[in-house]
Specification:
Elements (H helix, E strand, L loop, with lengths): L2 H52 L2 E7 L1 E2 L4 E2 L1 H9 L3 H4 L5 E5 L9 H4 L2 E5 L4 E6 L2 E10 L10 H4 L2 E9 L3 H23 L3 E4 L16 E4 L13 H15 L2 H7 L4 E7 L6 H12 L2 E4 L8 H9 L5 E5 L2 H4 L10 H12 L6 H6 L6 H9 L9 E7 L7 H4 L6 E4 L5 H12 L3 H4 L1 H13 L6 H8 L4 H5 L2 H20 L5 E2 L5 E2 L5
Parallel strand pairs: 9-12, 11-14, 11-15, 12-13, 13-14
Antiparallel strand pairs: 1-8, 2-3, 4-5, 6-7, 7-8, 9-10, 16-17
Helix pairs in contact: 2-6, 16-19, 18-21
This protein binds adenosine-5'-triphosphate (ATP) and magnesium ion.
Adenosine-5'-triphosphate binds next to helix 9 and helix 19.
GO molecular function, one term: ATP binding
InterPro entries: AAA+_ATPase (IPR003593), AAA_N_dom (IPR025753), At3g28540-like_C (IPR058017), ATPase_AAA_core (IPR003959), ATPase_AAA_CS (IPR003960), Mitochondrial_chaperone_BCS1 (IPR050747), P-loop_NTPase (IPR027417)
Keywords: ATP-binding, Magnesium, Membrane, Nucleotide-binding, Transmembrane, Transmembrane helix
């Protein structure tokens, strides 16, 4: 071969190589852009068509937790309630029973014994809606066997309901039927609703992001109502009006762009009715009560988890807030210290985690302030936050400023009006008129001599202690008069009324 031919071949091979590289690049892009789409569209469509012929059924699952297991799912609860109706249990062979009857003393025997039945795991039930048949089943994914021992999230069973239906009913089921199920479920929930008292003193749920059961609960059945609470009638009326405004304030809160919540601060000496007031509020509004035991909450993050798991129409109570946390202004942490705390809080693999579990709460003031009106406080609606304290002066002003604590209520020692109220409640309507002399003495001691006695003590002295005292209330009133006389004597013997400064610290009397 001569040189010309060789060089021609050389050039041609270079051109072919360049073309091959270009073609490869174009081909790859075509594959990515068009061919993949082409195959995806055609192949998947055919596969779906084939699947529809073989199995024309579709399904929807309702998992117990949503938002990355952070929050229990409302839809799951609604479906669960819907499935407790006759439709949801018809023909089911294995049922699950839960107490759903009222625990109130005044409930009928039938109501008290009522059980709420739902289908057990693994069962299936059919439901017919406007000619379409659907099937509900209850199931759970077993915990992973290889789960790391300290991760409760992985070890937990994931419960869910599954709805199966024919493809031809798709629009009807996903539209009208599911709306019908949710609506009906909410109705059942409202009907069976048993008010609850929740507490966070529970071992469950405190590990590695496992959010179930951070609250444990008992039925809430406190007998105290506003008409059994001794206090200034005008003040009581004002509180009730405030609660009514709050309860009916959905539209108002939306209009002004405020989360639908309200803070109450109840302060006063021990035994003046602060906890009782919380029960009366809950009974009046028919709300659940979440009793936050802050000393059991170890970090700000844990406090937030508890907040997320509270439901609407509830009162979140922090009793004796001044004793639960170090909230004094002087002991307020610096921004740096707070930041260090936050970093510790958010690190799930913190090596000192075990030690942290046993040490005291490290919830900080800023954690609590964020709880009350930070971004997370707006999740959920129609909730009251109530703080109670014996020493309002010990609280940081930031905690009780308007917007956080919107209404401050002072519960005070018993005055004569409250005494009459308590006497009638304990001893009958005509006791004051029947024992005028004794009652006049009580009035003089409470009003003229300014003797301080908490309603809890007044009530205790007035309580009949023997069957005889049920016939004659004189000894009850005498006992109260004696106690008031004694209290007066003690007050005159002691250096004088204690003066408490705004920090809640008892001041020494000025001596001349
Ligand atoms: N104003 C009141 N009217 C009727 N009963 C009252 C009143 N105050 C207290 N009592 C009765 O006294 C008991 C104790 O009251 P309560 O626990 O509400 O006091 P408290 O202010 O929360 O006390 P503490 O500061 O020690 O927590 C309750 O059983 C309640 O029935
Ligand atoms: Mg109390």
């Amino acid at each position: 071969m001569d040189d010309n031919v060789l060089s021609w071949f050389g050039q041609a091979s270079v051109v072919v190589s360049v073309l091959a590289v270009c073609w490869t690049m174009i081909w790859q892009n075509l594959q990515h852009i068009h061919l993949q789409q082409f195959f995806a569209r055609n192949f998947n469509r055919r596969a779906r068509r084939l699947a529809a012929v073989v199995d024309p059924y579709l399904s929807v699952t309702f998992e117990e937790y949503e938002g990355g297991r952070i929050k229990s799912s409302e839809a799951f609860d609604e479906v669960k309630s819907y499935l407790t109706t006759a439709t949801g249990t018809a023909g089911v062979r294995h049922l699950r029973a839960e107490c759903g009857g009222s625990s109130r003393r005044d409930a009928s025997a039938a109501d008290k014994d009522k059980l709420v039945l739902s289908m057990a795991k693994g069962e299936e039930v059919a439901d017919v809606f406007e000619g379409a048949t659907v099937w509900w089943s209850a199931a759970a994914v077993a915990p992973r066997q290889d789960a790391v021992p300290w991760s409760r999230a992985a070890r937990a069973e994931r419960r869910f309901f599954r709805l199966d239906f024919h493809e031809k009913d798709r629009d009807l089921v996903l539209g009208e039927y599911l709306t019908h199920v949710r609506r009906k479920g909410r109705e059942v929930m409202a009907k069976n609703r048993q008010r609850r008292l929740y507490t966070n003193i529970s071992r469950e749920g405190y590990d590695d992001g496992f959010y179930r059961d951070v609250w444990t609960h008992v039925p809430f059945d406190h007998p105290k109502t506003f008409d059994k609470l001794a206090m200034d009638p005008a003040k009581k009326k004002d509180i009730i009006a405030d609660l009514d405004m709050f309860r009916n304030g959905k539209e108002y809160h939306e209009r002004v762009g405020k989360p639908w919540k309200r803070g109450y601060l109840l302060h006063g000496p021990p035994g003046t009715g602060k906890s009782t007031m919380v029960a009366a509020m809950a009974n009046y509004l028919k709300y659940d009560v979440y009793d936050f035991e802050l000393t059991s909450v170890k970090t700000n993050t844990e406090l937030r988890k508890l907040l997320i798991e509270t439901k609407s129409k509830s009162i979140m109570v922090f009793e004796d807030i001044d004793c639960s946390l170090d909230l004094t202004t002087s002991k307020r942490k610096t921004a740096k210290e707070e930041e260090a705390d936050r970093e510790k809080d958010d690190d799930p693999l913190r090596p000192d985690k075990k030690a942290a579990a046993t040490k005291q709460s490290s919830v900080t003031l800023s954690g609590l302030l964020n709880f009350i009106d930070g971004l997370w406080s707006a999740c959920g609606e129609e909730r009251l936050i109530v703080f109670t304290t014996n020493h309002v002066g010990k609280l940081d002003p930031a905690l009780i400023r308007t917007g956080r604590m919107d209404k401050k209520i002072e519960m005070s020692y018993c005055d004569f009006e409250s005494f009459k109220f308590l006497a009638r409640m304990h001893l009958g309507d005509d006791v004051v008129e029947a024992h005028r002399d004794r009652c006049d003495r009580v009035r003089a001691l409470l009003e003229d001599e300014e003797v301080n006695m908490a309603p809890v003590d007044v009530g205790e002295h007035l309580t009949p202690k023997s069957p005889d005292e049920l016939e004659d209330f004189g000894p009850c009133l005498d006992r109260l008069v004696d106690a008031l006389e004694k209290a007066k004597e003690e007050a005159t013997r002691s250096p004088g009324p204690q003066q408490v400064d705004e920090q809640g610290i008892v001041k020494e009397d000025d001596k001349e």
